[in-house]
Design brief:
There is one protein chain. The chain is 33% helix and 21% strand. It contains five helices and nine strands; from the N terminus they run αβαβββαβββββαα. The protein has a five-stranded mixed beta sheet, sandwiched between helices. Strands 3-4-6-7 form a four-stranded mixed beta sheet. Bound molecules: zinc ion (2 copies).
């Protein structure tokens, strides 16, 4: 009788231990985003997050095009990507075209990236980045947006990747996630290497 009770308790305990599902990061380049630049992002993400998949380029969805400014709506792109993936995935879109979203009273505001916070989709654009150091900056924006998908808010630490760009380009000052943002991500994703 005692053994039976012990087994029952054990089974009950096990079923209440939360299982951290292995997340997959999907990289989705849009339009004519260069393959070599996609691969750079892929290889860099792979070093900190082994479960990453690089998809082939797809066209921008027609409805995401904002004709008055000749650019693509980031909010529509992340909604589009979000509905295309499974539950345990996070998708990041790559664009070399300008992207925009509504920001307060500004209906169409150009951005370097946008991500659900929290959520399963984000997009980054290389269009507004300075020519020198472009790949390094692009990767920083990618990590920033992926951080948002995991629920990270903007951070006051000036060298942290989660710093608010506030319409500028602070990327050369940003070094890494600060220790508190790192700890948050490590708790959230048990196999991340930060
Ligand atoms: Zn942000
Ligand atoms: Zn931080």
């Amino acid at each position: 009788m005692k053994t039976f009770f012990l087994i029952l308790v054990l089974i009950t305990c096990i079923s209440f231990v939360p299982i951290k599902k292995a997340k997959v990061i999907i990289i989705q380049p849009f339009g004519k985003f260069s393959n070599s630049e996609s691969k750079i992002v892929f290889e860099k993400i792979k070093k900190i997050f082994p479960k990453v998949v690089l998809k082939k380029n797809i066209s921008f969805p027609a409805k995401s095009f904002y004709k008055p400014r000749n650019r693509y709506r980031a909010d529509l792109l992340i909604k589009f990507m979000s509905s295309s993936i499974g539950k345990d995935s996070v998708i990041i879109g790559l664009s070399n075209k300008d992207i925009s979203t509504t920001n307060g009273k500004v209906k169409d505001w150009g951005v370097m990236g946008l991500g659900f916070c929290p959520g399963n989709a984000c997009i980054v654009s290389s269009f507004r980045l300075s020519k020198n150091n472009k790949n390094a900056q692009f990767y920083k924006v990618a990590l920033h947006e992926l951080g948002h998908t995991q629920g990270l808010q903007h951070c006051k630490n000036k060298t942290c990747l989660m710093r608010d760009a506030k319409g500028g380009n602070p990327f050369n000052e940003e070094k890494d996630f600060c220790s508190s943002c790192k700890n948050y991500l490590k708790k959230k994703i048990n196999f991340i290497r930060l």
